[in-house]
Write a structure and sequence with these properties.
Blueprint (H helix, E strand, L loop, with lengths): L7 H7 L1 H9 L3 E2 L4 E2 L6 H8 L3 E6 L1 H17 L4 E5 H7 L7 E7 L5 H12 L3 E6 L5 H5 L2 E4 L12 H17 L7 H36 L4 E6 L4 H15 L2 E6 L16 E5 L6 H13 L3 E6 L4 H6 L2 E4 L8 H19 L18
Helix pairs in contact: 2-8, 2-9, 4-8, 4-10, 5-6, 9-13, 10-13
The chain binds fructose -6-phosphate.
Protein name: glutamine--fructose-6-phosphate transaminase (isomerizing)
Organism: Bodo saltans
Enzyme class: transferase
Length: about 375
């Protein structure tokens, strides 16, 4: 049931302070700073850590969740990490080896492209790992091991709480995989501390951004096209924000790595196109500030997502949405919340079918 909410999507957006907690329950011990994931036994951890590489293969929002955790897998593991869009992977039929670990991430566990890619990797003899939300789904049955998201049933076609729980569960996985490194202990503890505050941060974020986002939706209602910029940890955020906005509003929205701006996309900037830029605090903040200046210099009207007061960003931006600050590698999970809400508010204002956008299905079981 939708309870007091007008749509499942809104309910699922608001549920996230709870669902991220449910994804950690029984898995992360905040006191002893240890992670236990049912699927990641000692033997399975060894298999992954002694593999040739890790290949993440999925579609849509699930692929964006993989992209969101990629920098942390790069940082904490001594392995090459690759990301594959399942349909493109199938088109290319690339090399996969027996000592590869192929990770399939899927809310439904039934997405046809992801399943076909799994079968391809199975034939190559690779180790198959699954992160799905659906117990008994094809992907959870066909993989050698893995973990469930435990975020509860997601009804809205546009994925919200599954995205944030995918980030949480894959974060737990990388913490478990790196737990014998003493060198990495301070960083791992920093991430675990942030995970222990995550539910409260999500709740605070929902409170902080709601009125701002409603007002912004009114202003963006007539936009013909929207750009979303980010880089580093926020590259995944800009892709996922753009996916949410386009599927809910039917308005062309593009997520662009701001490092690519001057290689083409700058030509799109004028006074009419709304440009949302992630400027939350991390090692790339100076580059985010420079992106906002580049947009301003072309008469653009940037909308900045910030996590602490920032004079330069505030002076350059037309609009500011402030969110709580968490550890850099989890900030994407917080940053997506105002974007899910913006997509929702715009869809309602436009009279679109929020829980079932046109031409889309919850589980894409055809190729
Ligand atoms: C977007 C969305 C889709 C799915 C994609 C993969 O909001 O829901 O992009 O993420 O179809 O679905 P799963 O995760 O079930 O494999």
């Amino acid at each position: 049931s939708k309870g007091p909410y007008a749509h499942f999507m809104l309910k699922e957006i608001y549920e996230q302070s709870e669902s991220v907690m449910n994804s950690m329950r029984g898995r992360l011990n905040f006191q002893t700073k240890s992670v236990m994931l049912g699927g990641l036994s000692e033997e399975n951890v060894y298999t992954i850590n002694s593999s040739r590489r890790i290949l993440f293969i999925s579609c849509g929002t699930s692929l964006n969740a993989c992209l969101a955790v990629r920098p942390t897998f790069d940082e904490l593991l001594n392995l090459p990490i690759a990301m594959e869009n399942a349909s493109d992977f199938l088109d290319r039929q690339p090399h996969v080896f027996r000592d590869d670990v192929c990770v399939f991430v899927s809310q439904s566990g039934e997405t046809a492209d992801t399943l076909r890619a799994l079968e391809y990797c199975q034939k190559k003899g690779a180790t198959l790992v699954g992160f799905t939300n659906t117990v008994g789904s094809s992907i959870s049955r066909l993989t050698h091991f893995g973990s469930h998201l435990n975020c509860g049933v997601e009804v809205g076609v546009a994925s919200t709480k599954a995205f944030t729980s995918q980030i949480v569960v894959m974060m737990l996985a990388v913490l478990r995989l790196s737990d014998d490194s003493r060198r990495l202990a301070p960083r791992r503890h920093e991430i675990m501390d942030a995970l222990s505050r995550l539910s409260a941060d999500v709740a605070e974020c929902l409170r902080m951004v709601a009125p701002k986002v409603k007002a912004l939706a009114q202003r963006l209602l007539d936009a013909k096209s929207v750009l979303v910029l980010g880089r580093g940890y926020q590259f995944a955020s800009c892709l996922e924000a753009a996916l949410k906005i386009k599927e809910l509003t039917y308005v062309h929205t593009e997520g662009i790595n701001s490092g690519e701006l001057k290689h083409g996309p700058l030509a799109l900037i004028d006074e009419n196109i709304p440009v949302i830029i992630f400027c939350t605090k991390d090692a790339h903040i100076d580059r985010a500030r420079s992106a906002i200046q580049q947009v301003r210099a072309r008469k653009g009207k940037p909308i900045a997502i910030i996590s602490e007061r920032d004079e330069e960003v505030e002076a350059a931006a037309d609009d500011i949405i402030q969110v709580p600050q968490t550890v850099d590698c989890l900030q994407a999970l917080i940053n997506i919340i105002p974007m899910q809400m913006l997509a929702y508010e715009l869809a309602v204002l436009r009279g679109n079918n929020v829980d079932c956008p046109r031409n889309l299905a919850k589980s894409v079981t055809t190729q």
